[in-house]
Amino acid sequence: MKKILIFSTLIFCSALWADPFYQQEWRLTPTLSYETNSLGNISNAGLKWGNYAYDKQYVELVTNLSFFQPESHLHPDTSFTNFDASVRFGVFHYVNLYAELGVAIDELFVDGSRNYGYYDDYYGDYYEERYQDPSRPDWFVGVGAGWRLDWLSVNLYARYRYLESLEEQFLQHNFDPYQPIPNRYQWFTGLELSVHF
Fold first, then answer.
1. Where is the signal peptide (predicted)?
2. How many domains does one find in the chain?
3. What is the pTM of this model?
């Protein structure tokens, strides 16, 4: 099923790219964003693909290399990197308003092995059932609002993220069995900047 979904997405993107209309009207713009909550922060660098030739636009495709860095009260080895892709539906004009749905693309291709280190017995029974499926990618939904100038877009956003990667990294690298395990469901708020050429 995953292969069919990935193949269909690649065919769709290839067809759009091959169409001369989309080559002329759709373009990529670089983007940087930063989001945070009480557990840590996520720095994103990527590209947005949208039709900015018209006054208004209703869909954007976004890809980001996302790096999670924990706050100091977590073990530093809980950091991780994802390659996120999302689609945004809304109005992108002088004022931007949108809803977003995204997933960590790299986790669709990689089935990670789970090894919780020294405290396997402590965590093993509780997590054995939850981790039977080795391919649960991180995902997120979000909403955002902002404004656009001729060469710059600024968006403020909130994302509700499912971060199994954070939970797994904590279990692999934490050596204190009494420290609470971070919740895999987390709210983040952030700021995004995009440059239009």
1. 1-18
2. 1
3. 0.75
